[in-house]
Amino acid sequence: MTDANRTRIRVLLADDHAAVREALAVLINSQPDMEVVAQAGDGDGAVEQARQIRPDVVVVDVSMPVMSGLEVTVALKHALPATRIVALTRHAEYQYVQELLRAGANGYVLKQSPSRDLLQAIRVVAGGKSFLDPLVTSQLTRHYSAETDAGPQPGGEELSPRELEVLRLLARGYANREIAIELGISVKTVDTHKAHGMGKLGMSSRIELVRFAILHGWLHES
């Protein structure tokens, strides 16, 4: 096996429309750094195949028979926490995005967006970060900006530089262990900075942190 083959991102495609799956497979397989290793036409098949082949990334249609994309996401996050998930849908409404992010999706891409957005999403989530379709980000920002008086609000205490680093990485989809490696600190220290930082921001969940990150442009920073 060549180095190129070893470093390819292994992708499982799940969509109930065969023509869509085949078109996506052609697109993905045309990239030198990724390949489609399996396809599924329903949610149950997606979960079963993922358990067998353990892909790096699962691209899952939100609306599928047997199990929805949301149910697939929940099941895979429980069974294969290391597998990254990109939700693919036509729905840009914040309710859909919020539910998928809460379930553990690492990326959210609209079917009507340019194909380059899906390819970027696969690469970004495979690298341990989060990806939101630019149109989705724009709509979420408008929605959240209109709700600034609702939900947790940042407290008066300023975040320390390390707390800020930890929370930014957490919002981008990094796991605590990955943050520890990235910053050269222990997982316990990551937990401490996370707790202190979330407390200062008046937040108790990751979805609240992602909301805050969207409003403050954290997901677009290098």
CATH topology label of the largest domain: Rossmann fold
Order of helices and strands: HEHEHEHEHEHEHHHHH
Distance between the termini: 33 Å
Report strand %.
Answer: 5-15%
Number of domain units: 2
For this structure, what is the CATH class of the largest domain?
Answer: Alpha Beta
Descriptive tags:
222 residues; alpha/beta; Rossmann fold; Arc Repressor Mutant, subunit A; 2 domains; six-stranded parallel sheet
Describe the protein.
The chain has 222 residues and is an alpha/beta fold. It folds into two domains: 3-144, Rossmann fold (3-Layer(aba) Sandwich); 149-220, Arc Repressor Mutant, subunit A, CATH 1.10.10. It has helices at 3-6, 18-29, 43-53, 69-79, 94-103, 115-126, 134-146, 161-171, 176-183, 187-201, 206-215, and strands at residues 9-14, 34-40, 57-61, 84-89, 107-110, 131-132. Helix 6 (115-126) links the parallel strand 5 and strand 6 (131-132). Helix 3 runs parallel beside helix 4 and helix 9 packs across helix 10. It is globular. Residues 148-154 have low confidence and may be disordered.
Detail the topology: elements first, then pairings.
Blueprint: H1 3-6, E1 9-14, H2 18-29, E2 34-40, H3 43-53, E3 57-61, H4 69-79, E4 84-89, H5 94-103, E5 107-110, H6 115-126, E6 131-132, H7 134-146, H8 161-171, H9 176-183, H10 187-201, H11 206-215
Helix pairs in contact: 3-4, 8-10, 8-11, 9-10
